[in-house]
Design a protein that fits this description.
By secondary structure, the chain is of the alpha+beta class. It has 18 helices and 34 strands. Helix 7 runs antiparallel to helix 17, helix 12 packs across helix 17 and helix 13 runs antiparallel to helix 14.
Length: about 725
């Protein structure tokens, strides 16, 4: 027989198969059902545990037994995946209301894995029993298992609002879900309110459900407006912070004790990260961190100084570590028609209520059918008691007693069969009284159920009663029901400057004539005994701090920027500056100085031209630097000075001195500049800033200093030629 071969386009075949795979992933693996809040693997785990009779009051069974049953009967996937899902349902730090009661090592908040399933044991919790309540009463639909040998529930009856109470996470194809856990008492309050007011405003519901309730506690610091918007759209985020206490110690010292960490943050990894930041000197206010946790979380944070503000210290930790996280909300679930969509909070709550209403109707109809069946049998028994002698005679004498009783007493076939199957001792008077009592009780119950099914108001009242019972069971007065996540106000704007995040240490940047650079700890003196390579000598000595950016100005007019903490350390002779920046072989270094925000710098070239520039505009992002000053012709950049006075003194190599107002020099971002001093034969010698009231000072031989206060002779306008300096002015013409 020839195989059935069909021709089709590759694109069509791929899209069809990928769509089938995507739908399978979305519906059969990753997204929870809005009604019971479970994915298929979790639903199958609970149903298998029920079949194994692992109720809360029964003995534990090995986890391997449960996993084996789930894999063999319902879930044809790997045992590791099934066991991982089961472990999570038992972790009280991962699930707000655990569904599995685990015995043995089921992992911990540090991120350690659970023991192998052959070592651990498990059974259901009371919450899991609530999810399964009524499953044998035709409350939900069943379908065949993957091998066709059994059946499994498509959804659980779910007398517990599990979706929002325990949350869910999952990644499918093209979509994902991320739902935080909530407090059941608050959920019940909102459900009861929705039954009375189906069109309740989202703001009213948020009054009852102010935010998630994570099993690991913490403090929710999201604004009410953001919470309302997240619940309205089904998408958003919640900012969650660790909780801490400040413990006073002797002599005015103190320490911070972190008692609760954010949800799904591994404690050991958190502490490792903080230690790494300390080693990188990015948490300068933090002295040490210790893990003193036992059953409860206790992380001790010691400040470097008792003068540190605890709030500022914690703010720096919040900003740089997982002591503060953002938990994203994505209420993407499968609705009652198994269609994936993002729901709002009211839609999710209403879907649960609709499911509970449907379960109530189905269970009531199932119970009504059972009662009617029993009443039919009891009616036959009562007829038999009223005509006991005739019944006995028919059974003893007639060849076909069943047919005769049906004809004689107008019984149904089932009633006749029940009479024939009665035991002789059931004919006693006491038995008749009990049957009559049962008949009356069932008749009354039947009337109640029929009234319930006929009145929607009574049905919703019954649903309210079930929810109220759950609310009482998990009230906040109980250990399991108490709210663990504190609802806090959005944090105040505590200003933590970036300088506070990194340790500031004084350093001295030393650069030699041949361009070897190094950074030594501390601010060393100008006359310090420094060593250089043979034939080399010092040229620049700049005092800075480790947090500074170092500006380097080259003779071609380019600025380079190097982080101070990246300079080679002070041991040895350092490293060539050309390894850090693209400095050409023909260029020399004109100036090295630490960057100061907003500082104004005077740049000048050998031809006597220049301008003032803001230091923020010269920071270079690339190794090749930033062209700022453009010397013309054969000229080169020669001067880079901070603006520190109201007058500028310029002297040329022709020994002409000119003093003019600083305000005459324009501020520019880049360019050639304006003429500072005009030369007929010569070029720029030196520039300095001065204040009019202090006069002009210059250095003399022997370390002496001379000051000229009357500068009238040399005062002029910018771009003048200037006049010869006072007697005793240095040769060559320099101010220092």
């Amino acid at each position: 027989m020839l195989p059935d071969i069909r021709e089709t386009q590759l694109g069509d075949a791929l899209s069809e198969r990928y769509l089938a795979y995507a739908l399978s992933t979305i519906m059969a693996r990753s997204l929870p059902d809005v009604r019971d809040g479970l994915k298929p693997v979790h639903r199958r785990l609970l149903y298998a545990m029920r079949q194994l009779r692992l109720s809360p009051d029964e003995a534990f069974k090995k986890s391997a037994r449960v996993v084996g049953d789930v894999m063999g009967k319902f879930h044809p996937h790997g045992d590791a995946a099934i066991y991982d899902a089961m472990v999570r349902l038992a972790q009280d730090f991962a699930v707000r209301y655990p569904l599995v009661d685990g015995q043995g090592n089921f992992g911990n908040i540090d991120g350690d894995n659970a023991a192998a399933m052959r070592y651990t044991e498990a059974r259901m919790t009371e919450v899991a029993e609530l999810l399964l309540r009524g499953i044998d009463e035709d409350a939900v639909d069943f379908r065949q298992t993957y091998d066709g040998e059994g059946s499994e529930p498509m959804v659980l009856p779910a007398a517990f609002p599990n979706l929002l109470a325990n949350g869910a996470q999952g990644i499918a194809v093209g979509m994902a879900t991320n739902i935080p856990p909530h407090n059941v008492e608050e959920l019940c309050d909102a459900l009861l309110h929705l039954i009375k007011h189906p069109e309740a405003r989202i703001e009213t519901l948020v009054d009852m459900i102010p935010g998630p309730d994570f099993p690991t506690g913490g403090k929710l610091v999201e604004s009410r407006e953001q919470v309302i918007e997240a619940y309205r759209t089904g998408r958003g985020s919640f900012r969650l912070r660790a909780n801490y206490e400040v413990e006073p110690l002797k002599n005015g010292t103190w320490q911070i004790v972190i008692t609760e960490i954010p949800y799904q943050v591994q404690k050991s990894r958190l502490i490792e990260r903080i230690a790494e930041l300390m080693q990188a000197r990015k948490l300068v206010m933090l002295g040490d961190i210790l893990d003193e946790s036992a059953a409860d979380v206790r992380i001790v944070v010691e400040p470097k100084s008792r003068n540190v503000d605890p709030e500022v210290l914690m703010e720096s930790l919040y900003r740089q570590t997982d002591l503060e996280i953002k938990f994203n909300l994505n209420l993407n679930v499968l609705d009652a028609e198994q269609t994936p969509r993002v729901m709002s909070l009211p839609e999710t709550l209403k879907a649960f209520l609709d499911h509970r209403h449907e379960v109530l109707v189905r269970r009531s109809k199932h119970r009504l059918g059972k009662i009617e069946d029993r009443l039919e049998v009891l009616g036959g028994y009562l007829i038999a008691y009223l005509n006991i002698d005739e019944v006995i005679r028919i059974i003893r004498e007639e060849d076909h007693p069943k047919d005769e009783m049906i004809r004689r007493f107008e019984l149904t076939e089932r009633q006749a069969e029940a009479i024939l199957n009665m035991r002789l001792r059931s004919l006693r008077k006491l038995e008749e009284i009990e049957i009559r009592k049962e008949f009356e009780e069932l008749t009354a119950e039947k009337a109640e159920i029929e009234a319930l099914l006929a009145d929607e108001g009574l049905r919703w009242k019954a649903v309210s009663g079930e929810i109220s019972e759950i609310r009482r069971t998990f009230a906040k007065s109980t250990e399991l029901g108490r709210r663990r996540t504190e609802i806090g106000a959005p944090p105040s704007d505590v200003v933590v400057p970036m300088e506070a995040m990194v340790e500031r240490e004084p350093i001295t940047v030393i650069c030699s004539e041949k361009g070897w650079v190094r950074a030594m700890k501390g601010h060393i003196a100008d006359d310090a005994d420094l060593k250089f390579k043979e034939g080399d000598q010092g040229k620049f000595l700049v005092r800075a701090e480790t947090t500074d950016k170092i500006l380097i100005f080259a003779s071609d007019g380019r600025f380079f920027t190097v982080a101070a903490d990246r300079l080679p350390k002070g041991r040895g002779h350092g490293e060539p500056l050309r390894l850090m920046i693209d400095l050409g072989n023909e260029e020399d270094i004109v100036a090295i100085l630490p960057h100061s925000a907003g500082q104004r710098l005077l740049l000048a070239s050998t031809d006597g031209r220049g301008f003032i520039v803001n230091s923020d505009d010269v920071i270079a992002q690339k190794k090749a630097g930033k062209q700022v000053l453009n010397p013309g012709g054969s000229a080169k950049a020669q001067v880079c000075l901070p603006v520190e006075g109201d007058l500028i003194a310029v002297v040329g190599t022709n020994r002409k001195l000119l003093v003019f107002e600083t305000s005459e020099v324009p501020e520019m971002a880049r360019g050639k500049g304006v003429i500072l001093q005009r030369y007929r034969d010569g070029k720029l010698g030196d520039i300095t800033f001065l204040k009019a009231e202090e006069g002009l000072s210059w250095s003399l031989q022997g370390g002496r200093t001379r000051t000229e206060t009357d500068l009238t002779t040399w005062r002029g306008k910018r771009a003048g030629a200037g006049k010869m300096p006072p007697t005793g002015f240095p040769r060559p013409a320099r101010f220092t």
